[in-house]
Amino acid sequence: MRYSVWDATTLPTTWLTVSAMLSALSYTLAGSAAEVYFEDDFTAGMDKWKPASPPGKEMGKWAVTPGKWFVDETADKGLQVTEDMRFHSITAPLAKKASSKGKDLVLQFSAKVENHQYAFCGGGYIKLLPEGTKLDTFGGDDEYSIMFGPDLCGYDISHIHAIFNHKGENLLKTEKISLEYSDKNEYTHLYTLHVKPDGTYEVFFDLESKASGKLVDDWDFPKPTHDDPEDSKPSDWVDETEIDDPAAKKPEGYDDIPAQIPDPDATKPEDWDDEDDGEWEPPLIDNPDFTGEWFPAKVDNPDYKGEWKPKQIPNPAFEEGMQLASYDNMAYLGFELWIVNNGTIFDNILVTDDIEYAKAQGEKLWRPTSKGEKEVKEKWDKENKPADDLGDDDSEGEDSDEEEEEEKDEL
C-alpha cells in the first residue's frame, strides 16, 4: 500500500497515488463484488511464502526488497531472486481455493528485471497449482493448472508465456505473444491474464491489451473436427502453382558460351622461356557473357487445384459444451525458475475473478511506480555507476555473436 499523502518530499508520487486511490474508490462504489483468491503486495514480508527445494537442484534464496532503486521504498517491496545460476522455487497457499468453472479467472503480477542484460535469458512466470502439490519439493516436474509470465531472452525470442494444462498435457500458445524491443528492459512491468468462461481470453501488458481471441483457436485444445486419417491426396492432384513456360526456347548458341575465357589483358612475362616453361597461356577469368545454366521461365499452372487438405471428420476428443481452461482445485501459487542473473522482483500478485478489480489494483499499485521509475533509475546510475558505464544499459549485449540458451523447467 502507499502512504504519506501529504508528505511534501514525495509530492509527485503522492498525487499519482491519490489519483489511483480515487480510481479504486470509484470502482468500489460502483458495487463490484470481486472474489479475491490471493493478493500480496509484500508490505508484510514473506509471511505467506514457503521456499521449496526440489531434489538434485542447487537452490537460490529469496528476499523481500524494493531493490537497488525504487520510487517508494515500502510500496515497491517485492519477492526477489537473489543468486546467479541457481534454481529458485517458492509457493504460497491461496486464501481460498480458486475455480474458473463457469466464471472468469484473472492472474496478475508485476516483474522488475533489475539486472536486465540482453545477452542472458530470464524467465519470470508464475504457476497456479492444484491441491495436493508437494510444496517442500515443488519444481519444474510438478503438475500445474496455468503458467503465465514473461520469458526474456536476447532480442528476438522474448515473449509472454501462457500455458494451460489439459488432461495432463501442457498446451503452449501456437503463436507466441511477442514483446517489443522497448518492452524488454529493467523497469517494472505488469502482466495480466484474463480467462473467460465463454472460451475466450485476453493478455495485458502494462494494462494494455497484447493478445486476445478464442482458446480453442490459439492453443492445441481438441477442435470440433480433425483430419480424416483415411483420406489421402488423389494421385492426379496438381499442387504445383507454376510450371515451365512451354513456349520458352533456349537461345541458339547458348551452350557454346564458356564460363571462363582467357584474360585479354594478360601478357606473357618477358622472362618466359617456351623451351623451359612450355607454351605460355593467359590465365582464365570469368566470362561476363556467361549467364549460367539455362532454365525456361515459369508461368502459372493452368491445372493447379490448390493446396490439398484432408477431409474433416468429427473429433472424438472434442467434448461439446466443455469449458476450456476450467479448473476448480487451484490451491497454491508458485514460482520455479532457473535464474542466470539475480535481481528480478515480483510484486502485486493477484488472483481474482474480476478483471475490473485487477485493472483498478494495477492503477493503484503499479502505475505510480511505472511513472516514477525512469527518473529514480537515472539518479541511481549517476550516483553509483562509473562514468564509462552510464548510457550502456540499452546497448548491453549488442556485440555478442552468440545467444546463450539456459535450462528452463517451464513445461
In short:
The protein is of the alpha+beta class and 411 residues long. The protein has four helices and 23 strands.
Protein architecture, described:
A hairpin with a 2-residue loop joins strand 10 (159-166) and strand 11 (169-171). Helix 1 (11-29) packs antiparallel against helix 4 (355-384). This protein has four helices and 23 strands. Helices cover 14% and strands 30% of the residues. The protein is α+β, with helices and mostly antiparallel strands.
Short key terms for the protein model shown above:
8-stranded antiparallel sheet, disordered N terminus, disordered C terminus, single chain, 9-stranded antiparallel sheet, 411 residues, alpha+beta, Jelly Rolls, 4 helices
Strand fraction band? 25-35%
pLDDT averaged residue by residue: 87
- Proper CATH architecture of one domain: Sandwich
| Low-pLDDT ranges | 1-20, 394-411
CATH class of one domain, anyone? Mainly Beta
The CATH topology annotation of one domain reads as Jelly Rolls
**Proportion of helical residues:** 10-25%
CA radius of gyration: 31 Å
Distance between the termini: 34 Å
Secondary-structure element series: HEEEEEEEEEEEEEEEHEEEHEEEEEH
Number of helices: 4
Shape: extended
DSSP strand tally: 23
Structural class given helices, strands, pairing?
A: alpha+beta
Major sheet details:
9 strands, antiparallel
Write the layout of secondary structure elements.
Layout: H1 11-29, E1 36-40, E2 50-51, E3 62-65, E4 78-81, E5 86-98, E6 105-113, E7 121-123, E8 126-130, E9 146-153, E10 159-166, E11 169-171, E12 177-178, E13 188-195, E14 200-205, E15 208-214, H2 215-218, E16 225-227, E17 242-244, E18 260-262, H3 274-277, E19 284-286, E20 298-300, E21 312-314, E22 330-339, E23 344-352, H4 355-384
Antiparallel strand pairs: 1-23, 2-5, 3-4, 4-23, 5-22, 6-13, 6-23, 7-9, 8-9, 8-22, 9-10, 10-11, 10-12, 13-14, 14-15, 16-21, 17-20, 18-19
